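Replying to the earlier thread about multi-chain prediction with a worked example.

Input:
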Amino acid sequence: MLRCRDVGMLLYEYIEQRLEPSVSQQLEQHLADCPGCLAFINTYKQTMRLSSDLRCRDIPPELQQKLRSFIKTKLSSRRPSFWERLRSHLTGLL
Ligand SMILES: [Zn+2]
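Result:
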């Protein structure tokens, strides 16, 4: 079973469809249960789409920074509090 930090590390390869089918499937299973990672991936995809629409290969600096700090928080967080808070926040919106 993948954890949130695994998703962060596999994200790029997943978007680029370079993952092994079995890994990709595990990632999708995680996304089905994890609104935080799902929202993150959707944001990332939107960012990629927007930046290509703008005929600019670079992610806008502001979003780049957001993504970076998101990944950093996710990968360095040993306490689950951040994810719990994000999850309950997202659950509250649904
Ligand atoms: Zn997750």
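Residues 4, 7, 30, 34, 36-37 surround zinc ion (CB under 6 Å).

Feel free to reuse this layout for your own posts.
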